[in-house]
Design a protein that fits this description.
The complex is a heterodimer.
Chain A lengths: L15 E2 L5 E2 L7 H4 L4 H13 L4 H8 L4 E4 L6 H6 L3 E4 L12 H5 L5 H11 L8 E5 L3 H13 L5 E4 L10 H20 L5 H27 L6 H9 L6 H17 L8 E6 L8 H9 L2 E5 L18 H11 L13 H12 L3 E7 L3 H17 L3 E6 L7 H15 L2
Chain B lengths: L17 H16 L10 E4 L6 H6 L3 E3 L1 H10 L3 H11 L7 H11 L3 E2 L2 E2 L5 E6 L4 H13 L3 E5 L10 H22 L5 H23 L12 H12 L4 H20 L9 E6 L7 H9 L3 E6 L19 H10 L7 H14 L4 E7 L3 H4 L2 H10 L5 E6 L9 H22 L8
Parallel strand pairs in B: 1-2, 1-5, 5-6, 7-8, 7-9, 9-10
Antiparallel strand pairs in B: 3-4
Helix pairs in contact in B: 1-9, 1-10, 3-5, 4-5, 7-12, 8-9, 8-10, 11-16
The chains are: A alpha/beta, B alpha/beta.
């Protein structure tokens, strides 16, 4: 296949390479590369550079500026708590395509997803050195168990397993989650060297509220005018939101939205699809681009749910309780939460919301929460005659011929039906 | 090649007598009692083993079905693969939990097994305790049957003692569950009945713990993995009934007889082994023989604790009914964090004078398995315990490679034997 121009970043001679062969990106501690990025093209290019380097350039730059960083495993961490203590919450979303796994297999076991292995590999090989603490939310059994492994292999850096509740009908769930947050705070406060202040938390709620508002606007634009913003662009702009200081990302996202709203590109004869499954481990950029290259418009997806969990949270009388309540009452219905209705209702609502013609299940290899949902989703789609396609991916993919063939067949079957 | 003990020539489990026969009878009676054709039909609740609420449900007159136990019974009787293949034809992928596929395949085929017909559920009680797949599994059952689903959210244990907030959260959910049961059955909650059931549970728990702790004797009169797994049925499925409590009286009487008369799992206990992990039910006897051949007796194991850590002191308490049910729900072995699991294993190694550990990883069970490689590393390098890690599946016979597993176990025990011989130690002493 022809590799799209956008995706040739890994052969870019401008990237330095370390002795271990990994690309090395150095950022200024004030993140001027992103503060000054004047176009979406530049933002996207710089994000690709950052993602090609598995040594977390943004966390390193933050440390160079004297800060401390907390690595947060997907899908949801109350980043506001991390931020309110002056720490940088950084989304840990795997090692990407450039990381070789050599030690993690032996510690974890064979039949596990790429993101768990690459995260552990990075811990075992020093690539997570820029982090002072880690949060592993209970989104699946592997994520939960990683916390216990981290506590042994990185004993000097706190690791916390956050039990996100699954009973959303109980009157005591919010109270329990507040207690969970307090336990997390206890560890983070030690890292930060200070206690949480209500005013700081209120300010963090406002900042993250703004980020979520903009993320929601980007998703709406992608849904309403998918020809004016590509999936790779919207994905990278949001992915950056989990890596940069949010004070840098929010104005960047605002500038990006201004530019994207000003576009007026011609719509193609493409199939509107919802992308379901990649809520934790992330597919390669090549695969994301391929989906739209073959003639799809992605009008709904689960790629960066962290920034779209709930809208703005008002601090109220107890900001901690407000934050917990926002999580519990969020209308998010993806594989890492028990469904408040049924899986059938959830998938059909997503299709309706995007006015989609079909669904692409893009699930990470060995991701059990996603794989089990797919069966129920498929059953509901079949009952309504809605076409779907199921693809599996891993962090490292080198060939896309089979995926291209499947996607092209899927698109043609809808276009010429 | 080392020298296998003469025990390899004897039939498996010849030391098992009255208790095993009684356990078989209890299993048969239980499944016969579930027959949907029986009248009057009692409502059926599906439940999971870890953190289950059997006592409460039974106090409202429900029959309880444990699909995990149905699945493992199918596997040990070599009936799981057809169910798994059927589930795969429904769309469940190769990497989905074997229990889930075995059960959902069986359900979709009408629930007929060689040991009885499994009735449809009237209520689905998901104790989310130690396994996230539980939630997915019960959601699938709810959509298949249209039965109401109660999700009992059990916090993961990261410290030795639960927080007050954890207990408050659990008790609050228990009251909400009781209100649901009252509404569905039209019966009022009877606290005295619950206390009576809990007293029976406690009696069974005392007997079960006594049995497990017999592995501390040297030589051990029990097989703490392969034999204990047979005896998990009453503590997990029948807990709260007089039959379960009486069963362990028979078991412990038999163990005392063994000690008196010198009847042991093997003629010579050469290696005292700790086994961690779920067994390959599809090849249970063969796997057991791989241990027996080398004179390896499991004196302690983690898997029999999936229904609760009774050997470490937990008991249901009729004087604190809901609080003790809340505490119980936290205690499933896989609901313990890895630091707590490591501590339990370190205690077992010391208390049971363990020579070596065998870890059996399950391909499709991330909850139990993810991190067992790290456990192996910790046992070998930080605790000095020789440890073998092998992998197959609990439900899917396609993943059990007999020659490969046997070769690895032979090499492991041969090297232990060699180490002992060169160190001049006598059989039965720690390497």
């Amino acid at each position: 296949m022809t590799v799209p121009t956008l995706l040739q970043i890994r052969t870019d001679a401008a990237l330095d390479k370390e002795e271990n062969g990994l690309p090395r990106v150095e950022l200024a501690p004030d993140f001027r590369e992103f503060r000054d990025a004047g176009s979406v093209a530049e933002m996207v290019r710089r994000t690709q550079e950052v993602l090609a380097d598995p040594t977390f350039p943004t966390a390193r730059a933050w440390r160079d500026g004297g800060g401390k960083a907390v690595g947060c495993f997907p899908v949801y961490t109350p980043q506001e708590l991390v931020h309110a203590l002056g720490l940088l919450p950084v989304a840990l979303q795997g090692g990407g395509e450039n990381l070789e796994i050599s030690r993690a297999d032996a510690s974890l076991g064979s039949f596990l997803c790429s993101i768990s292995k690459s995260t552990l590999e990075m811990a075992l090989t020093g690539l997570l050195d820029p982090f002072d603490a880690f949060v592993f939310p209970y989104i699946c059994d592997v994520s939960r168990n990683l916390d216990g492994i981290f506590s042994r292999i990185l004993p000097d850096r706190p690791s916390h397993m956050l039990h996100l509740p699954q009973n959303f009908a109980s009157e005591s769930t919010v109270r329990f989650l507040v207690a969970e947050y307090r336990s997390l705070l206890k560890k983070l406060e030690k890292v930060a060297g200070r206690s949480l202040r209500a005013a700081d938390l209120a300010a963090s709620l406002a900042l993250f509220g703004e980020q979520r508002l903009l993320a929601g606007q980007l998703a709406a634009l992608k849904r309403e005018r998918p020809w004016d913003v590509s999936l790779v662009e919207s994905y990278l702009l949001l992915r950056l939101g989990g890596l940069l200081p949010r004070e840098v990302h929010v104005p960047l996202l605002r500038r990006a939205l201004d530019e994207l709203r000003g576009r007026n590109q011609k719509a193609k004869d493409a199939v509107r699809v919802v992308l379901v499954g990649p809520f934790c481990e992330q597919p390669t950029l090549e695969l994301l681009q391929l989906i739209e290259d073959v003639g799809c418009y992605v009008v709904g997806e689960e790629l960066q749910m962290l920034h779209r969990w709930y809208p703005r949270v008002e601090p109220g009388g107890d900001p901690l309780e407000s934050l917990a309540a926002a999580y519990v009452r969020a209308p998010v219905d993806i594989g890492v939460r028990s469904t408040p209705t049924t899986k059938a209702a959830a998938i059909l609502a997503r299709v309706r919301e995007g006015d989609a013609q079909g669904v692409i299940f893009l699930t990470a290899k060995f991701c059990e929460p996603a794989l089990e949902d797919v069966v129920l989703y498929r059953r509901a789609l079949e009952a309504k005659g809605i076409p779907y396609l199921h693809l599996e991916f891993e962090e490292k993919s080198t060939t896309y011929e089979q995926a291209r063939l499947q996607l092209e067949t899927f698109v043609e079957s809808i276009l010429f039906d | 090649m080392g020298t296998p003990t003469p025990s390899s020539a004897t039939p498996s489990a010849a030391f098992l007598r009255d208790a095993r026969a009684l356990q078989r009878k209890l299993v048969e009676e239980y499944y016969a009692g579930l027959d949907p054709a029986r009248t009057p039909r009692r409502p059926v609740a599906y439940m999971l083993v870890g953190g289950n609420l059997a006592e409460i449900v039974r106090s409202f007159g429900y029959e309880v079905v444990f699909p995990e136990i149905v699945a493992l019974t199918c596997a040990i009787k070599h009936q799981s693969l057809d169910n798994i293949l059927h589930a795969e034809s429904l769309g469940y992928g190769l990497d989905v939990c074997g229990y889930v596929k075995s059960d959902l395949g069986l359900q979709d085929r009408g629930g007929e097994t060689s040991f009885g017909r499994i009735p449809r559920p009237d209520l689905l009680v998901c104790s989310f305790s130690g396994c996230y797949v539980y939630v997915k599994w019960w959601e699938a059952l709810a959509e298949s049957y249209g039965a109401p689903l109660f999700l009992f959210d059990v916090p993961y244990m990261r410290e030795e003692s639960p927080r007050k907030e954890d207990i408050d959260y659990l008790v609050s959910q228990l009251w909400e569950f009781i209100r649901l049961l009252e509404k569905r059955t039209g019966r009022s909650f009877d606290m005295n009945e619950l206390k009576r059931v809990l007293a029976e549970s406690r009696r069974a728990e005392e007997g079960w713990a006594e049995f497990l702790q017999a592995g501390r004797l040297r030589p051990s009169p029990i097989e703490a993995y392969f034999e204990s797994i047979f005896y998990m049925f009453p503590i997990n499925v029948l807990r709260g009934t007089p039959e379960a409590a009486d069963f362990y009286r028979v078991v412990n009487e038999e163990v005392r007889t063994r000690v008196r008369e010198g009847i042991l799992p093997l003629p010579q206990e050469k290696f005292r082994v700790l086994v961690e992990g779920v067994p390959p039910y599809t090849n249970y006897r063969m796997f057991w023989d791989f241990f027996r051949k080398w004179g390896a007796v499991s004196v302690v194991a983690t898997y029999p604790k999936v229904g609760g850590l009774f050997d470490r002191g937990f008991r249901h308490d009729p004087s604190r009914p809901l609080e003790s049910i809340a505490e119980y729900s936290l205690g499933a072995y896989v609901n313990q964090s890895w630091p707590l699991r490591r501590q339990i294993i370190a205690d077992y190694v010391r208390e049971y004078q363990v020579d070596a550990t065998v870890i059996h990883g399950i391909k499709s069970c991330r909850s139990f398995t993810a991190g067992q490689g790290d456990l192996r590393d910790w046992l070998i390098h930080e605790r000095g315990v020789p440890t073998l890690y092998i992998e197959s599946d609990h439900q899917d016979p396609r993943y059990f490679a007999p020659a490969q597993i046997k070769n690895r176990m032979d090499a492991f025990f041969e090297s232990l034997e060699h180490h002992r011989a060169t160190a001049g130690a006598s059989p039965g002493s720690p390497p």
